[in-house]
Amino acid sequence: MAANRLVGRPVSGESLIPMSQLKTQLVILIGISLSVIVLYGFLYLEHEWEIGLLLVTLPVAILLLKRANMLIYFQTAARMMPRFTLVSFVLGVLALILLLRHEHFALLMLTTVLLYVTVSLGLTIQFGFAGLVNFAAIAFFGIGAYSMAVLNHNFHAVPDLVIILFSGLISALLGALLILPILRTRGHYAALITIAFGILLRTFLEVNDVFGGPQGLKVDGLEILGWDFANSFPSVLGGGSFYMAYAIAALLLAAAAYLLTRLIEASWFGLNMDSVRLDEVASASFGINAPRWKITAFMVGNFFAGLAGAVYAAMSGFIAPASFNFADSLLLVSIVLLGGIGNAVAVIPAALLIVVLPEKFQVIQEYRLLLFGIVVILILRFRPNGLIPRGLRQYFTGSSA
Amino acid sequence: MRPAVLKTEDLTVKFGGLKALNGLDFELCEGQFLGLIGPNGSGKTTFFNALTGIYRPASGNVFLHGKDITGVSPNKVYGYGITRTFQRLRLATSLSVLDNLIIGNQRNLNFGIWRNIFDRKYFKSQLKEQTEIAEDLLRRFSPDLAALLLKPISSLSMIDRRRVEVCRALISEPKILLLDEPSAGMTPDETRALMDELQGWRAQHPTLSTILIEHEMELINKVSDTCVVLNYGEKIAEGKYSDVSNNPSVRAAYLGED
Ligand SMILES: Nc1ncnc2c1ncn2[C@@H]1O[C@H](COP(=O)(O)OP(=O)(O)OP(=O)(O)O)[C@@H](O)[C@H]1O
Ligand SMILES: [Mg+2]
Q1: Per-residue pLDDT tens digits for B2-24
Q2: Closest chain A C-alpha to B192 CA, distance in angstroms
Q3: Of residues B54, B50, B52, B53, the one with CA closest to residue B9
Q4: What is the pLDDT of residue A311?
Q5: If exposure means fewest CB atoms within 10 Å of the residue's CB, which of A40, A317, B163, B244 is most exposed?
Q6: How far apart are CA A206 and CA A212, in angstroms?
């Protein structure tokens, strides 16, 4: 019975190799270790030739693994035990954070990558699942950041964790302002509306003295569960960079967002969002209420962006309208396109490439937007499903019946 | 004759100056299998779209069991137990057969946040139930189809896609099934196979009322009780296939077409 197969085994169009649980775990651990080493390389290496070497060897290595029929083992294992994979990855990155605890710049970059991953997961739900274009991701990130700045300054008694949550909620709720126009328009027009919203928000912040005008606002640091993020690491244990605690917070946030994205995908929510994206007429003919799913996707996505923005604000200690540029919204959209539309895992390597490479290569820094424009065009032209195309929906995995 | 389940009175749909449907009076009885025929552009698809809430009629009414349902949304029409297929397939091609069938069974899904996202044990039981329903349906409709349950639609042949689309319309156990030219894009052999399957299904579900749109008149002979012939949005004949096919105005409409 397919029903038993479905609940007991991974479901996919590809053929999978049977592996024992122990072997599966081992394969996952090897895969995660390799990934964390690569991540370490990207963050730690400084010279352009080193990063260049990494950029060249990586695809070659992946290709060789594929040729040797090894890649399928990693894919199968990750599909068989997604939770174990996620936990291993989080622990691996945690270890990396400890290893890099004196490297301010590497940690700052890692935190940025993780926050961008969180926002990109929001875009994955909006664009990848429900088909909603959002060129205002950085605006919602900014709303979260400003909420954090204002709330944290005015409500000292409220735990910072709650304030972060509220910042996300405010972002989602302000996003609701856009829902009506977005539901009524389509394609390019919907895109224009989000672009306009981003510009309006920036102007609003610039002229509004409550929010510090163009000079921006100072933001208090975080203190969660008694841990003051400014004194990052107990000095008895050797101390560490100011950014360490924020890197850990961003890691947990990204992991939670990832889990939620996956759960949405593997439920009727994700199914209906896909259906609405793929064919609205057919969806309507089967009783699917398209606005309901678009609204859900839009709100959840902006919630993610708001959460990430809140953590970003606390880490930066200072925010201004100029920190939230339209160009960054484009960057976030290109992360989703580059990774693979609708594939939650894919945003991780994509965010890494798009955030880190400009920091490492002077050339890219200068022509950043131009280069990303070219990358997006090349991707859309030659690999429209991205570096790691999304597979079939996988509702459940593992050997539990 | 059994009671009418679906009835339209003076139904008119306009596109600008064009009356794609012009004052159509139409009746479908319980358990009836009605063939809707007519040349290209005669308004057959428009009729379905007007019934299912995709187009709003300019005038006239649609009654379901005597209740006026003119101009209600497609969502509601589905809720009333009317489902359809599309002339140009409208399956979600990047999703699996199973996903497509579950989409068709919206009515029986639970959309609580808790029961979808957090209570995964409950969700698993829901999924299992839906999978069994889907697999069972495929097997009953066409035995070989069940093996394709977990395949993406994009890997299926044309006839299998048609079959899946019909099954998507059947899974919620509708009262009225609207089939828009399921033979489009298929070979005569494939069409015959599909017609046999539809006939088999009908034998097991005597209360299901069906309207089948066909372009080729001969095809409809085998499966339908009665036919309605449209031309330029108007009904030009109705009755038994043998009568209708000999009707001079029908012949003229078809010959004129050629
Ligand atoms: N959305 C629309 N906008 C404008 N005109 C339309 C629209 N839909 C249908 N029409 C016109 O209405 C008339 C009836 O079209 P319809 O699709 O109902 O024909 P049909 O009988 O289904 O034909 P076919 O056998 O080719 O499928 C045609 O002249 C068509 O061009
Ligand atoms: Mg038609």
Answers
A1: 778 999 999 999 999 899 999 99
A2: 26
A3: B50
A4: 96
A5: A317
A6: 8
Q: What is the pLDDT of residues A31-67, one digit of tens each?
A: 999 999 999 999 998 888 888 899 899 989 999 988 8
- What tokens appear for A276 in the block? 């609405």
| Residue A147 exposure: Cα atoms within 13 Å on the Cβ side | 29
- At A235 the pLDDT is 61
What is the residue-averaged pLDDT of chain B? Answer: 92
Per DSSP, the residues of A123-162 read HIIIIIIT----S-HHHHHHHHHHHHHHHHHH-TTS-HHH
Q: Which residue of A13, A279, A285 is in closest CB contact with B84?
A: A285
> CB distance from A225 to chain B under 8 Å?
no
Angle at A150 between CA A144 and CA A155, to 5 degrees: 115
ipTM of this predicted structure: 0.94
The CA distance from A272 to the nearest CA of chain B, in Å, is 7
Both tokens of A139, joined, read: 């605006």
DSSP string, B24-58: EEEEEETT-EEEEE-STTSSHHHHHHHHTTSS--S
* Cα distance between residue A196 and residue A367, in whole Å: 24
Phi, psi of A224 (to 5 degrees): -120, 130
- Name the CA dihedral angle for B148, B149, B153, B154, rounded to a multiple of 10 degrees: -50
Find the farthest-apart pair of alpha carbons in chain B and give their distance in angstroms, rounded: 65
CA nearest A160: which of A230, A227, A216, A245? A227
Q: How far is CA B206 from CA B58, B175, B200, B201, B240, in A?
A: 34, 10, 11, 9, 19
Q: Phi and psi for A318 in degrees, rounded to 5?
A: -160, 135
Burial degree of B203 (CB within 10 A; 0-12, 13-18, 19+): exposed
What tokens were used for B2? 């059994």
Which is nearest to B64 in space by CA: B23, B113, B28?
Answer: B28
Mean pLDDT within B108-131: 94
Sheet holding B33-37, edge to edge: B82-84, B176-180, B209-214, B33-37, B226-231, B234-239
In eight-state DSSP terms, residue A388 is: S
- The CB density around residue A352, as the number of other CB atoms within 10 Å, is 22
pLDDT digits (tens, 9 = 90+) for A88-125: 999 999 999 999 988 889 999 999 999 999 999 999 99
CA nearest A290 in B: which residue? B75
Q: Which residues pair with B179 in a beta bridge?
A: B212
Residue among B91, B116, B131 minimizing CB distance to A3: B131
Cα four-point dihedral sign B231, B234, B240, B246: negative
Pick from A5, A25, A1, A15: nearest CA to A80:
A25
Mean pLDDT of chain A: 88
CB pairs under 8 A between A and B: 120
Write down the pLDDT at residue A238: 65
pLDDT surpassing 80 at residue B254: no
Residue with tokens 């280069």: A371
Please tell me which residue of chain A has the smallest CA distance to B133.
A3
CB contact under 8 A, B78 and A287: yes
Q: What is the pLDDT of residue A12?
A: 44
pLDDT value at residue B224 = 81
Question: Has this prediction a pTM greater than 0.80?
Answer: yes
Q: Measured between alpha carbons, how far is B190 from B160 in angstroms, rounded to an integer?
A: 10
Q: Which residues contact A145 (CB under 8 A, 6 or more apart)?
A: A167, A219, A309, A310, A312, A313, A316, A319, A323, A324
Q: Which of A14, A88, A8 is nearest to A390 (CA)?
A: A14
